[in-house]
Write a structure and sequence with these properties.
6-stranded mixed beta sheet, globular, 307 residues, alpha/beta
Length: 307
C-alpha cells in the first residue's frame, strides 16, 4: 500500500508552500490614557479650498476609526450635533469644547479641521486635530510621553517618533526663552505635561524636563488644579496618494481586511470614502503611537484559498 501513497505525497510536495499558512504580524493600538476614554467628535471645519467639502463626512470617519481602538467609547456624531444645536455652540474655542464635554458627560472633545483636500488622483488630505479635555486641569500630553525611554526597549522606538518627541521637547524648552513683548501678570506659568521643576544651572522653574516623558508614580493625593486653556493633544499631518510611505501603509492595512471588492488597495485611492477613512485611521494611529498607544503585534495566520 505504500507505493500507492507515493504519488499523493509527490503531489503534495509539488505544491510547495501553497498549502501552508502565511504568517503575518499585524500592528495593534490601544488607548494609553484611561482618563480620556469617553470621547465626542465634533463636525470638522473646512479650511481647504474645496468648497463642497463636508466636515461631517470627516467627523463620521474619524469617530468610526477611533471607536475601533480598544479603550475608547465614542459618542455618536448625531448626538454631538444635537447637543451643539441645543447649546448654540460654534466650537470656536476651548470654552465651547468644554461646555459640550460637560453636556455630553465625556472626557474629551475632538475638534478637527481639513486644511487641504482633493479627491482626484493622486488624492490629498491634510488634517489638523485637537483634543480638549473636559477637565481643564488636564495638561498637554506631548509626543514621546509613555514611550520606553531609559529602558533596553528604547533602541526599538522608531526614528520618526524619536524625532517628533525631541522636536516637541525642544520647542517647549525654547518657548521659555522667547521674549514676551506683551504686558502680562507676574504670576509664573505652572508646570504640566512634560514639564517639571529643575533646580540648579540657572534654569527657569517652568523649564520642560525630559524626565517628564516618563509617567510619574501615583501620589497619595491628587495634584492641585492648574487650569490650562489649550488642548491635551494636537496632531497635524498631510497625506498624499502618491507618497510611498502612505501607499505602503495602505497596502499593509488592506492585507488584513476581509474586503471582497475588486481592485485591491489601489482602489482605496479612487474611492473618496475609503481614502478619507484611511487618512483618519493613520492620523489616530500616529497621534496615539507617539504617546505610548502602540501594542505588541498580533500574529495572523492566513490560509491560502484552494479552488
Amino acid at each position: 500500500m505504500i507505493w500507492r501513497t507515493l504519488p499523493l505525497l509527490g503531489a503534495l510536495l509539488c505544491t510547495g508552500c501553497a498549502l501552508l499558512p502565511e504568517i503575518a504580524h499585524q500592528p495593534t493600538l490601544h488607548n494609553p490614557f484611561p482618563q480620556l476614554s469617553k470621547v465626542a467628535v465634533a463636525p470638522f471645519f473646512n479650511l481647504s479650498t474645496e468648497p463642497t467639502l463636508d466636515g461631517r463626512r470627516f467627523s463620521l470617519a474619524y469617530a468610526n476609526e477611533l471607536q475601533q481602538v480598544p479603550g475608547f467609547e465614542v459618542v455618536p456624531v448625531g448626538t454631538v450635533e444635537q447637543a451643539m444645536k441645543d447649546l448654540n455652540l460654534k466650537m470656536t474655542g476651548p470654552e465651547d469644547a468644554r461646555k459640550l464635554g460637560k453636556e455630553l458627560g465625556v472626557d474629551a472633545v475632538v475638534i478637527g479641521a481639513v486644511t487641504d483636500y482633493t479627491p482626484y488622483y493622486p488624492p490629498r488630505c491634510s488634517l489638523q486635530v485637537e483634543w480638549y479635555a473636559t477637565n481643564e486641569g488636564f495638561h498637554p500630553i506631548p509626543p514621546g510621553y509613555g514611550l520606553p525611554w531609559g529602558t533596553p526597549e528604547e533602541e526599538h522606538i522608531p526614528g520618526p517618533l524619536v524625532f517628533e518627541a525631541e522636536m516637541a521637547l525642544a520647542k517647549a524648552q525654547l518657548d521659555t526663552q522667547t521674549p514676551n513683548c506683551q504686558p502680562t501678570s507676574a504670576e509664573p506659568t505652572p508646570n504640566g505635561g512634560a514639564t517639571g521643576p529643575v533646580t540648579g544651572a540657572g534654569l527657569p522653574p517652568q523649564w520642560p524636563d525630559p524626565r517628564g516623558f516618563i509617567p510619574p508614580p501615583p501620589k497619595a493625593r491628587p495634584e492641585p488644579c492648574w487650569p490650562q486653556p489649550g488642548p491635551v493633544m494636537r496632531h497635524t499631518q498631510a497625506y498624499n496618494g502618491n507618497d510611498s510611505k502612505f501607499t505602503e501603509a495602505l497596502a499593509s492595512y488592506y492585507y488584513f481586511q476581509d474586503d471582497a471588492r475588486f481592485g485591491g488597495w489601489q482602489n482605496y485611492l479612487q474611492r473618496s470614502d475609503d481614502f478619507i477613512r484611511f487618512c483618519c485611521r493613520m492620523h489616530i494611529w500616529e497621534m496615539l503611537s507617539a504617546r505610548g498607544g502602540a501594542g505588541e503585534t498580533r500574529v495572523v495566520w492566513r490560509w491560502p484559498t484552494i479552488r
